[in-house]
Amino acid sequence: MLQAVIFYLLAIATVLSGLAVITRRNPIASAVSLVVTFFFLAALYVMLGAHFVAVTQVLVYAGAVMVLFVFVIMLLNLRGTDPRELPDLAPRGLVGLAVAGFIGMGLVVSIDALRLVDMGPVADDFGTIQQVGTIIFDGTYLLPFEVASALLTVAMVGAVVLAKREI
User: Using CA atoms, how far apart are residues 51 and 160, in angstroms rounded to an integer?
Assistant: First the structure.
């Protein structure tokens, strides 16, 4: 029971910090909220028994990728927008909230329907270094892994090129 309560509290905290990422006007505050989201996700991974994935989450995403994001933000010299310059977004927010509510209801119904299927026990090697390495590098997810690394490299080079134009 206590484990379920902690899991739901972490899940709620993850969603709230994720919402903070998209609602912050200051890019640095948004990046800090993203780091907090990554740490909450790592805590969820620990609760699910995937300790290696949790450590990788903290080291790679909360560490290296966020340093890259902050570097790009600082390099591009982005600033938060002045609240007086923003249009009134209340009608759009209500429409977005209604759409999110319908999607949420659909997810609840879908998840409830999935409970009819027995998923079986979790494998003993779930989340271990050997399993993760085998899945990534044996060819199953090698192409998406390489595409993600190339995409991050292109994004960083693009940010540097954009920053050089303004200087």
Answer: 35
